[in-house]
Amino acid sequence: MTDYDFLRDGLTAGRLVPLLGPGALAGARDPQTGDALPADNRSLILAMNQGREMMPRLMVEFSRAAQHLEQRRGQAAVTRFLTGLYSRPWTRAPLHDVLAQLAPPWVVDLNRDHQLLDSYGGQEHLLVKGCARTMGSGLRYRLYRGHCGQYEEIDDSSAIDPAWPVLFKPLGCSLPEPSFIASDADYVDYLTELMGGFALPPALKTYRQQKQYLLMGVPLGRDTERMLVTEISYGAAQPRGWVFLEQPSPKERRYCARMSLEIIEQPLNSFTRFLQANPGSARACLS
């Protein structure tokens, strides 16, 4: 049995970086209808297509379906859908509530909602948003200083306080202005630049060295997620970390063995319940 106290203490001390996937949003619901917040590939596709199934080849992955919509109606149509989806009121996911209490100094969130931003709204923080198909500098990120729900865009030459928690949203979000990595074309551009080192600010590249990661709600059965995890955790300590996979597939087991990720074959909500019953109080900062 994995030592949950060890994981909690690593999160609060900053040694262990939480890396959140769709499963981290379990329990977030529409307060009126009780419908779950669409987070995984299938639920996002159905939400985008008014609850109707799309062609089988498009139902495999949200990025394919988003590319299909983009080709028919333009990139703005995908942005409108995602912005409208996350602008609706949703209840808080229990995992987000307990992470807000722990306040890890660096969080990687592969979702596109803004519950993570709400968790840190009461304190100054640095928001790093992934972006794709941009011109100019070639960088595939934008930086914002956030406080009390307000965001100010800054650049790499601006003074970044090392005490600020860092929220890294590789796939974008609707705040402070909507921008997302969603379609196949977005992913090709973003992942190419992530591998080339142009999708992370220099300070974060330095800070991530020799860190370990705790993957929560991140499926590893598809290339997209595996590539994101591999590149984001570049320079990690060994072992690279831990991942909650209740029923890992052979492909997931092979990837985790190659990446030195220890599989925790327990439901993620078991860790959430542990954190609810055993909250931590330590806080760390980016340094």
TrEMBL record:
<protein>
    <submittedName>
        <fullName>SIR2 family protein</fullName>
    </submittedName>
</protein>
<dbReference type="Pfam" id="PF13289">
    <property type="entry name" value="SIR2_2"/>
</dbReference>
